[in-house]
Amino acid sequence: MAGEQIRVEVEVLAARTEAALADAGATEPSRQAATRAMMHGSLHGIDSHGVRLAAHYARMLVGGRLNKDPQLSVKRRGASAMVDGDDGLGHYAIYHAVDTGIEIAKELGIAGVGIRRSSHLGAAGAYALHGAEQGFITFSTTNTDSMVTAFDGAKRFHGTNPLAFSAPVPGEKPWLMDMATSSIPMNRVLLYQTLGETLPEGIAADSAGQLTRDPAAVDMLLPLGGANFGFKGAALAGIATLLSAVLTDATLDPDFIPMIGADDISTPRNMGHFVIVIDPDKFAGSDAFGQNILRYLTALRAAPARAGGGKVMAPGDREWAVAEERRLNGIPIDPDTAAFLGF
Q: Which of 1, 98, 197, 295 is the most buried (most CB within 10 A)?
């Protein structure tokens, strides 16, 4: 029934998710990477990019769009590198790109790594966090198929094109920002539809370009900032496209085979991604960086809150709180995902 969810223990959900990808033929390294990234989404409250995507990935593996046994390759030139994802699960390729960037940054201080011949990667924050947990400031982005209007536009142009940053914090969870450049991710619209819920005001439009709150009627999203300030979100989406597609010779947003709803599920989409990895030790030094970010976060969290607005939080604080609650009480999953995973 619409709206009904069940709670599943973290370890059980991860095992069922990986098993579903194994049944679809994904080899161990790629399915483990995909499971890790999806569990990041589900654990930290990014449900639209969590395990609900397992059914889609399994269908694409069986249909041939995704390579079940990708052989990753890397070409490096100085502080830059390119990863060829061999048309496999995008999570596998971009985790490898972050690891490549870390090795370069250890040597040179900063690295830029592009990825091409990849696929949908889920929550971009999973990969920024992967670098931060190893002591590196990390940025990750991707462009996606057209779902968002240009500013003042009445037709799909950009993808939801996320930007994610994360930084290490001594003795604490990393600073973590993961945001779509659209008003809302399209996967969240689909989740609203599955749960039978109404969308908030001013974030989506129907095929005629008229605003709608009915998730079943949504044809396109508005850029971050909405009708008045959407030029900001549209420009940020362009940055994701510039780095992920233009720079890497991957697919531009309007040229993608749609992720969802296309008859063709056998042709790879040549999706691109991009990561930047920075070693704080090669700048002011790790000690200075650690002291400064702790001072910054202490001041930020101590900033006065407006009346009725709750407390001031740093990027990532909400996610860490959600993750703690879900580790204790289980991760909520929607009915369709529960059925696919055999619950």
A: 98
